[in-house]
Design a protein that fits this description.
Elements lengths: L8 H23 L5 H25 L3 H10 L3 H15 L9 H17 L6 E7 L4 E6 L1 H28 L2 H30 L8 H18 L9
Antiparallel strand pairs: 1-2
């Protein structure tokens, strides 16, 4: 347990807490019934958030260069599934207003598969150095992969936000307010995630790479509340 008393130990604790809470919420919602697509996609969204937090945690605390690099590369995979399941969740909550065709679903997951494969290649990490004495990192990223990866995330999340905005115009009463809260929650979370987990990492500042997974808890709690608020329970999804 020595890794927990390093100068950045409190960050490791926060990541562990984020892992446990995301996993607990995912299991809770999954057990409520995955035939309900809102429950299904939100539980998968939470489980992906858990895996993102856990991958980041292992990338920080493991002393082996090989495994530290592997888990940091893996931490690039889960935000892709987070974005996809967020898109599917938003398409169904609080009511469904979009039906994707088979080729569209195939294209979404094909992009995720290709980007996930390239995340483990030199297209992503051109060079990876971990200074064990200080637990600091020196990483040279592949420009083409980083731009392609970031663009895909932006397209998915902006698409989800657009769907919410359309629903906000269609909704009435408390639904209109809930959708607007969800819209701003996702937008703020996405902007912070891009800044702390993509931009700062890209310019070589890894002091805040724990922030995205931890802050995602606030987004997840917000969505959790909207789903299980008394008024939302009256809606048949």
């Amino acid at each position: 347990m020595d890794f927990l008393i390093l100068p950045i130990g409190w960050r490791n604790w926060l990541l562990l807490v984020a892992c446990i809470i995301n996993l607990s919420m995912a299991v809770f919602i999954f057990r409520r019934g995955i035939k309900n697509k809102v429950n299904l996609y939100f539980s998968l969204f939470l489980f992906s958030s858990f895996l993102w937090s856990f991958s980041t945690f292992l990338g920080i605390v493991l002393q082996s260069i090989f495994w530290s690099k592997f888990w940091f590369q893996t931490s690039f995979v889960w935000p892709l599934s987070i974005a996809v399941f967020l898109f599917y969740f938003v398409s169904n909550f609080p009511f469904k207003n979009i039906n994707l065709k088979s080729w569209q679903n195939f294209f979404i997951w094909a992009c995720v598969f290709v980007l996930s494969i390239f995340a483990y290649t030199r297209w992503n990490f051109v060079n990876f150095i971990k200074i064990k004495q200080t637990n600091q990192f020196i990483i040279e990223y592949g420009v083409i992969f980083q731009w392609t990866y970031s663009l895909y995330l932006v397209i998915l999340v902006v698409g989800a936000l657009y769907i919410l905005w359309v629903k906000h115009k269609q909704a009435e009463n408390f639904l209109k307010k809930n959708i607007l809260i969800l819209f701003w929650t996702i937008l703020i979370g996405f902007i912070l995630g891009l800044y702390f987990n993509l931009y700062l990492d890209y310019i070589g500042n890894f002091n805040f790479n724990w922030f995205g997974p931890v802050f995602s808890l606030l987004v997840n709690f917000g969505v959790f509340y909207l789903i299980f608020s008394k008024r939302s329970k009256q809606i048949e999804y």
